[in-house]
TrEMBL record:
<dbReference type="InterPro" id="IPR014729">
    <property type="entry name" value="Rossmann-like_a/b/a_fold"/>
</dbReference>
<dbReference type="Pfam" id="PF00582">
    <property type="entry name" value="Usp"/>
</dbReference>
<dbReference type="InterPro" id="IPR006015">
    <property type="entry name" value="Universal_stress_UspA"/>
</dbReference>
<feature type="domain" description="UspA">
    <location>
        <begin position="1"/>
        <end position="132"/>
    </location>
</feature>
<dbReference type="InterPro" id="IPR006016">
    <property type="entry name" value="UspA"/>
</dbReference>
<protein>
    <submittedName>
        <fullName>Universal stress protein F</fullName>
    </submittedName>
</protein>
<comment type="similarity">
    <text>Belongs to the universal stress protein A family.</text>
</comment>
Length: 136
């Protein structure tokens, strides 16, 4: 059983209910669940002015999607942060005393075996246990 669980939420995927259910099953009595979505930073070569112009709209849309996914979820705290997805998840876990990360993962393709998926990167670098829910 874990006391502080981070659920990595991908707002463009449908695995959130399953990962939240897994977190609930793993949570110790009185434990905390944090649902985290990372807004991916744009590539360094992108136009900074364009990013600044769209940043507020992107954040607002992500916040609205997060709210929609969290409707009826009263036992988790939603957090929205910016950064590179796998790095930010690991750093958030380190800085916030997370003792378990729960995240979804798609069925790996050839490129995932060569460069690694987000879930694989989090598993390799996380300071705590990681439970990965594989979807087909």
């Amino acid at each position: 059983m874990y006391h502080k669980i981070l659920v990595a939420m991908a707002l463009d995927h449908g695995v959130s209910p399953q990962t939240l259910a897994i977190a609930r099953a793993l949570r110790a009595p009185g434990g905390e669940i944090i649902a985290l979505h990372v807004l991916e930073e744009p590539p360094g070569s992108s136009n900074a002015e364009l990013w600044e112009a769209l940043q507020e709209e992107i954040h607002d849309r992500a916040r609205d999607l997060m709210k929609a996914k969290m409707v009826g979820v009263n036992d988790a705290t939603a957090k929205l942060v910016r950064g590179h997805i796998h790095t930010t998840i690991v750093e958030y876990a380190e800085k916030n005393g997370i003792d378990c990360i729960v995240m979804g993962s798609h069925k790996p393709g050839l490129t995932d075996y060569l460069i690694g998926s987000t879930a694989a990167r989090v598993v390799r670098h996380a300071p705590c246990a990681v439970h990965v829910h594989r979807t087909s």
